[in-house]
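Q: Could you fold this chain for me?
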Amino acid sequence: MAEPRLRSIGPTVPTEIVSDARILGGMPVLSGTRIPAETIAAYLRAGQTSADIRADYPTLPADGITIVEAWAAATG
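A: Sure. Below is the predicted structure, expressed as structure tokens.
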């Protein structure tokens, strides 16, 4: 059986963060988007507000910031 192309990154990582070799070369993204989790995490580390992030990424899912925060905590 072939391994699925879309997969969760790991057991402690939110399932909404996925890696697919066909999307941004396998970079972790929010599921259903091409928004890199690391990009949103970088905005948060820089002190950007949720409103600032949403202005730059209007297609970010409603819970996207919370998901990225959990991803960042799980991946260090």
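A (continued): The mean pLDDT is 89.
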